[in-house]
Amino acid sequence: MNSYAPVQRVVGLLLMFLSIGFVPPLLFAWINHDGATIAFLMSAVVVSAIGFLLFWPTRSNQRELRVADGFLVVVACWAAVSLAGAIPFVLVLDVSIVDAVFESTSGITTTGATVFSGLDEMPISIRWYRQQLHWMGGLGIIVLAVAILPMLKVGGMEIYRAEVTGPVKENRLTPRIAETAKALWLIYIGLTVICALALWAAGMSLFDAVTHSFSTIATAGFSTHDASIAHFDSALIEILLVGFMFVAGMNFALHFLALRRASAQSYLHDPELRLFCVLIVGTSVLITLLLWQQSLYDSFWESLRFAAFQAVSYMTTTGFTTADVYLWPGTLPLLMILISGLGGCAGSTTGGFKIVRVYLVSKQGLRELRRLIHPRSVVPLKLGGRTLNEDVANAVWGFVSLYILCIVILTLVVSSLERDLVTSVSVVFSAMNNLGPALGDAGQNWGQLTEATKWLMSFAMLLGRLEIFTVLVLLTPTYWKH
């Protein structure tokens, strides 16, 4: 008996479902006669056929997924979708397989790093498709599957726990996991619609407004223009994007609770959100002062405009830009890359370390200082007035150690493949934090990197998106002996 039949079944069903995602770009290609119609049609047929071939032999298998199976399902699904998503790039743009897989992985993991240039001249269907990849990956293709395909009946909670970001994953918004996923997706769709309408009203074309709302709410970073948000040169658009990036960087559970209770109290009493606000304001002020000191812009207010946008974009790991950050003087470019490691709130669409972990690590550090002074004292670890058990503290420290270890190992390997250390360090940080922008040779785009680095960074993007544990647990001998 095939012990991995339930996993195969889920991956097959998901690929068949996601093959529908090729329909919108196919329609764009057909309506605009941009030459990509056949390519998207072939992509849909191939992906749905592969999904069917995986699903059909296991269609009668009703075994529930175990907790351990959830990890394999999540990694297999993300890897399969990243590979399947590369097909249109190969067929339409005639690029190498490594570039196509990199772009697809960057899109679905909401990283936003690109190896392509000349976006303004690309077929409109491909421009839409890149943004759509972001939107589908924003809240997680697995959560999407659990919400839309209750027919899976293969242990939705196991998938959800392996997929959802953040250190505290046991809380459900609703009694049933499928209802939780649907609630999250309704909020996600609602924010996307509101963002698109706001950007359209601010002067973007309807196409740009919709596609950039995909990237914004997914905190992703792809744009339909080479110059990113600088293409529009509009303070109003930038202010709107800052607001929506901030909202997308918040825990979506807070949005759900605020809507259900018709009250803002859930926002006001959340310690993670308070720290997020403090860090956003603090970094914006710091970068503004550094830009003003360097006289890079004509006035203090212009420095504030560019600093605030980049600070919010980088901290939420969105990666939109209105300036060539990699050309900023002094330590500013490195500072921007480092703040991306903070990330947004747990339960958001952001990448990075997550603010709740920063909060808990800080609290634990202060607790250890108190213990040095009062060795016999008992100091509980609390989050918003709630005492956390030691399992959460251990999980946070485990994540910290693995995060640092992965950064160090990947940097050492990439530095042996690339000629520039600044490039090596920045691409690893950017990929692991699902940011997008980088420095050095990857400042403009990532096309100059070696093929080996692109493959490695594709893996790093998945590693960061699935928060390390989900991927690395599959590399342990203990898992396969289970």
Task: Offer a concise description of the structure.
With 482 residues, the chain is mainly α. It has helices at residues 5-18, 23-32, 37-55, 67-84, 87-93, 97-108, 124-138, 141-148, 156-163, 177-201, 206-217, 235-248, 252-261, 265-268, 271-293, 300-315, 332-339, 355-373, 390-417, 421-432, 451-465, 469-472, 477-481, and strands spanning 382-383, 386-387. The protein is built from 23 helices and 2 strands.
Strand proportion: under 5%
Largest sheet: 2 strands, antiparallel
By helix and strand content, what is the structural category?
mainly alpha
Q: What's the overall average pLDDT, rounded?
A: 87
How would you write the strand order of the largest sheet?
A: 1-2
Radius of gyration: 22 Å
Topology order in helix (H) and strand (E) letters:
HHHHHHHHHHHHHHHHHHEEHHHHH
Distance between the termini: 16 Å
Helix content: 55-70%
Count of β-strands: 2
- pLDDT < 50 stretches: 148-160
Our count of helices gives: 23
Choose one word for the global shape. globular
